[in-house]
Amino acid sequence: MDLETRRVVNEELWRSIVWAGIGLFGWGILAGETALLEANVLTLLSVPFLTWTVLTTTMIGTRIVTGTELQVQSKTGLSLFVTLGVLAGGVASLFLVAVVGYSALSISSLYVAISAITVLWVWHTVFPNFEPRTLPSSPFISSQRPLHSRQNRIMNRYPCK
């Protein structure tokens, strides 16, 4: 295994801890809330393990085959990522209130507080220190510009003469 492949595998194995946690938590909720999935020890351990294995090997394979880092490279991308995270939190909050039966007031309060803290943290801590990645040098690119939008990437790919 070469050094680059080893680095990718190492990074993705560390990131896969999140996949394992989501698998254990998510499949545990599904097994407890639905009648379609039998809640026994084999199911609650094997299904999250299979989920973790598939997601981790898919991420490792994707990064090795494509050679990309699969990381946010612009402030716009970071904003989109935070927005999708807040929306996913809202869906999870609705699930906890509508299906599981938690108190709407407590879940709503937690959702608003966590979302506000996350957005403020990104706005005041992450954005000021975030440096966009630049395009690699190429004879077809007239200047090195940060990747801010799709339009900039297209303009850099096909410069006007």
TrEMBL record:
Membrane-crossing residues? 12-30, 42-65, 77-98, 104-123
Q: For this UniProt record, give its keywords in alphabetical order, as a comma-separated list.
A: Membrane, Transmembrane, Transmembrane helix
User: What is the protein named?
Assistant: Uncharacterized protein
Source organism of this protein record: Halococcus dombrowskii
